[in-house]
Design goal:
This protein has about 475 residues and is of the alpha+beta class. Helix content is about 25%, strand content about 30%. The longest helix has 24 residues. Bound molecules: flavin-adenine dinucleotide.
């Protein structure tokens, strides 16, 4: 079987909307068409406001199209959330489960939805206490959870818990949400380059030289690159993981499972095949994509692999999402710590209440508040992230690959068919040297995570701009 180096969900991405070709005005502008942006549009579309959403590529083609899409209350992130916040977070995720199911049923969305078993487990004696603590919190919050045995192939849990989980095709689900939005104007291939505010009105300039005037703005761009005054780079960092999809020795479709150990492994099934994730780390720690992909290829869990890809998400210092008002009339929804499905449902509902001035659904306002103060421990963590970015920068200088040639300002990849791709190698974001990811054929920034395709188009991360392609011969 030929292996594809792209997410299995790419098959379901379809361009549907034209790019912006005129100047327009609206009440609320949503920048970014991933799961967070489209669900925000969905919640706001229940009002009579004029809503516009702009997406720089195709809808859902960012982080959202590359997730594994496990839907469960048994998230590994629970191990990192403080005892003070965990109960409220669990409640928010339960609400997310309800909202997701309600949306699917209300809109009759065919997204391969089914209920299944979900496991959270440990293979380490030292983590049993931590998992038992999570178990107690779940039980206290009336989650139907029980102790269980978990064994799959060479993975055998020392302690495991089981609860209800859902299985969906995330892009089919979001396509269904998109199609229900008859009163939202959506533009694809439209990138926001600049946001200005004058007299209480935002003027947004796009790459295709048009302007959008808006009274309120939501940034659903995943990486919060635009908010320098709020020091987001010190509050968040990126984590990258590697994913494989293929046949297993034993067919078992009835579960998803995540361990709480380091390093994280997760398993789910789709269409009779397994989606397996591992190799999670900060972006600059393990920049060697080949080594990480080999880990998946060599895993005894697989009989055959048809797809391999990587993905990264925003990790926050307190492991809680960042959702709310950042500056007057400017809102943000991000920081999902690799658990974006349920939190973006809850977050979209929270933003709609904040923006429309409703008292309903404000329960998680403080928990997800973007203006929360950083405590000393969290500040030290962020210093490590800054160190990590510098480390990434140095690795960018030293990176070696037989098919890639670097000079001070340029880099060239020579493909197997002899085609040469010459690019300017500085990331437009903060000028780090890009590294070639020879598995997925992308130019990746090891400092802050921007990624560009072979033709220089930005596909994710903080860069607002493409990289210059000098030539393709
Ligand atoms: C390896 C991995 C596995 C995961 N698995 C799961 C899982 O099993 N379950 C789960 O719940 N979550 C999972 N997640 C998390 C989930 O994928 C993310 O949290 C979620 O997709 C983030 O959605 P988003 O809308 O914030 O970002 P995106 O999908 O990246 O959307 C942001 C959009 O904004 C656009 N954009 C950016 N800048 C501009 C601009 N200037 N102008 C216009 N548009 C712009 C981008 O093109 C992009 O489409 C996983 C994450 C990773 C990394």
């Amino acid at each position: 079987m030929t292996m594809k180096n792209e997410s299995i969900w790419n098959n379901y991405l379809k361009e549907k909307f034209l790019e912006l070709n005129e100047d327009i005005e609206c009440d609320i502008l949503i920048i970014g068409g991933g799961i967070a942006g489209i669900l925000s549009a969905y919640e706001l579309s229940k009002s009579n406001k004029k809503i516009v959403l702009v997406e720089r590529n195709k809808l859902f083609s960012g982080v959202t199209s590359k997730m594994t899409a496990k839907v469960t209350i048994l998230e590994d992130i629970l191990k990192k959330i403080s005892d003070k916040d965990i109960d409220k977070y669990i409640k928010s995720q339960l609400e997310g489960l309800d909202l997701l199911k309600e949306n699917i049923l209300n809109n009759n969305i065919d997204c391969c939805f089914k209920e299944n078993k979900s496991y959270l487990f440990t293979m380490k004696k030292s983590n049993i206490k931590k998992l038992k603590n999570i178990y107690e919190h779940l039980k206290n919050n009336k989650v139907k959870v029980k102790e269980a045995n978990f064994k799959f192939n060479n993975i055998e849990a020392l302690f495991a818990i089981e609860a209800l989980g859902y299985e969906i095709n995330p892009i089919k689900y979001l396509n269904g949400i998109r199609d229900s939005l008859t009163n939202v104007l959506i533009y694809e291939n439209t990138s926001v380059d600049l946001v200005l505010k004058d007299d209480g009105i935002f003027t947004v300039k796009t790459n295709n030289k048009h302007e959008i005037k808006a009274l309120k703005i939501i940034f659903a761009t995943n990486y919060p690159y635009f908010l320098k005054p709020l020091l987001f780079p010190l509050k968040v960092h990126l984590e990258k993981s590697y994913i494989g999809y293929g046949d297993t020795e034993s067919l078992n479709e009835g579960f998803n499972a995540i361990n709480i150990d380091k390093e994280v492994h997760s398993i789910r099934f789709y269409n009779g095949k397994m989606i397996y994730l591992t190799g999670s780390s900060t972006i600059s720690n393990k920049v060697n994509a080949i080594k990480n992909f080999n880990k998946i290829k060599e895993s005894p869990l697989f009989k055959d692999i048809s797809n391999l890809w990587s993905n990264m998400d925003i990790i926050t210092n307190d492991s809680l999402p960042i959702i709310g008002e950042v500056l007057k009339d400017m809102y943000i929804i991000t920081g999902f710590n690799t658990w974006g499905i349920l939190s973006s449902h809850v977050g979209a509902s929270l933003l709609a209440s904040l923006i429309l001035g409703k008292k309903k659904n404000l329960k998680y306002k403080e928990l997800f508040n973007p203006k929360k103060k950083i405590n000393l421990k969290k500040f030290l963590n962020s210093s490590l992230n800054v160190y990590d970015s510098i480390n990434g920068y140095l690795k960018g200088l030293l990176n070696k690959n037989k098919m890639v040639f670097y000079s001070k300002d340029n880099a060239m990849y020579v493909a197997k068919d002899g085609k040469c791709y010459l690019v300017k190698r500085k990331c437009p974001h903060l000028k780090c040297n890009l590294i070639f990811n020879s598995v997925e054929k992308t130019w990746d920034c090891p400092c802050h995570g921007s990624r560009f395709d072979l033709y220089g188009n930005v596909i994710s991360g903080p860069s607002k701009y493409n990289i210059k392609v000098k030539s393709v011969k």
